[in-house]
């Protein structure tokens, strides 16, 4: 039977090569596009699944309320982890993790690597697999370190017996390597290349022993029989019971939600990346359905050519059921061909897609799940694409066929037009969404940030950079390419150390205000391009302003009416005089309103160095000169840097991804829709060959015939615009509600999308219309 279906499919393909190719490639493109998206969705859904204890591991988050607004943080008190294991039933294990980026060196090789200072319980909890060494006792020595395979290869190549060797950390102490663990998979939320004892982290942070001081992350593992909700309820008052001045509430955050549901609003989980995953999964199905609709449209459009075949089969005794099976079988064969071509397209396109989404995905055809998915795709496409054509074609009356009576095709034509409306509705909605996503991302990126992110270099302070800053800064300026340089305790783009232990005259005792803390060198404000709205900047002599501070305008407003300059603000018990007000700048949450900031003139805690290029400096030349300065002034450390504008762009990674993929998918949806429209317009022109010939003989010109053939299809597109525009408006309005700073949806976006769709449809249809209009009427009338 399959052999017969195969033969009849090949005959049909050979008779109608043009339509068949449109069918074939349209379906293959849809399958390839949907397949790539499903691979991405699978990768996103599989995050952290390599961890055996995934369903029982939780991160302890903390809900902190300031002026009635609850916010969620990942930092926790230092004593929390051991106390939970000791006092909380159901928690079998806990570990603390303090993130750090350190310089590791062996001989003349030196590399900065990110890792954690952690408790030894991290190994059994996260089931890290060791290539060398034993997890038990790996962190018993104070100066011990466990490294990843990648890090081991960097320093020791393919060498084995790495355990027991020494590696220098931050050019200070030698640490003994006590283990090598296998590299974490790319789809792991936690990424690190080394682990050292948590005691090292705690030794330089005496304040970690207090319940009101928050810094490390805390992770716990529950027993298999423990109720997660019950533990969460018991955790609510845990910190307050330890210290009645602490009102922060701990909550458990499941590992299975770390990647996809990591957004918190008012102290509760509220979506996250899962929304993008759902969106693109829906788009994948839509594109697949659009491709199948093309098949259905073109198959029913060719029904007249197969009417005689159906009539002969029925006269010879073929039942309708056997005809339905035949046409479904043909669709299945076409589906198999399309899936195979789709796989070839996926092999070709996957490297480009991987580059866009920054992943390393493969087809994984040996995976039974992927093999099952291919079979499902063949069945789904075959059944969907062949269902209506098979029922429609098998319903032909052989008497009407042989008498030459024209078959009534009103319902088929209506269905074909409805399907085209559906295709273009989706395409138009995607075009509108793509434009609005791009506008929103650009709106956030180009709004007034309160500082100048261009021509700005960011470096971690290592070695002698803090101690010798004055000399280094002068050497940098002497290069002729550097305008200024400054120190800060933390990265300017991110939320820094913060606290609520600030008071001033007139402050409401019940008001709790979270204020970020920045310890800077006097050149920081000018280097960053920030603006002093009132008062003055710090003096060059850092000690002269040791008891003075700068504040941002949002804090000045909170402090009450009148000028903030000259007011006293207390940090704990220490009084500080406000000498200037800085314009608010954007950091941390790029979509929300920034917390107020207080600036201290102090470089003791300097963690980052900012270097401002001159406007006319060439980046490559400037970097070469700056590198030479650090090689001279800080020779023990490699020159590591990042550009602030590039770091800024990385904060919009998800939104940029959505924008880029929306462009691609909108283009593909339009392409697939146009393939179907092209085929239908060709079929229409062919069906009206005699009419066109008669009209030309009677004096009709080319433009009139083109207009006649095009207007029906353009009406369909206009209907799609009327349907697709409000759908896009509804969904984009909901999406934009998540942004504190957002665009207003403008009417011209819908006009532009509609005009683009009409233009695309017109050029698609007009090609066939012009071809038909230019044909010789004598030839068409003779053949008809």
Describe the model.
It is a single chain. This protein has 784 residues and is α+β, with helices and mostly antiparallel strands. Helix content is 49%, strand content 18%. The protein is built from 24 helices and 25 strands. The strands form 4 sheets. Strands 16, 17, 18, 19, 20, 21, 22 and 23 form an 8-stranded mixed β-sheet that branches. A 6-stranded mixed barrel has the order 3-4-9-6-8-7. β7 and β8 form a beta hairpin. The two termini are 37 Å apart.
**Biggest sheet character:** 8 strands, mixed
Q: How much strand?
A: 15-25%
- Tell me how many strands there are: 25
Segments where pLDDT lies below 50 for 5+ residues? none
Radius of gyration: 34 Å
| Helix coverage percent | 40-55%
The pLDDT mean sits at: 82
- SS content category: alpha+beta
Shape: globular
State the separation between the terminal residues, measured CA to CA: 37 Å
Number of helices: 24
Task: Report a brief summary of the structure.
The chain has 784 residues and is α+β, with helices and mostly antiparallel strands. Helices cover 49% and strands 18% of the residues.
Key features?
single chain; 784 residues; alpha+beta; eight-stranded mixed beta sheet; six-stranded mixed beta barrel; 18% strand; globular
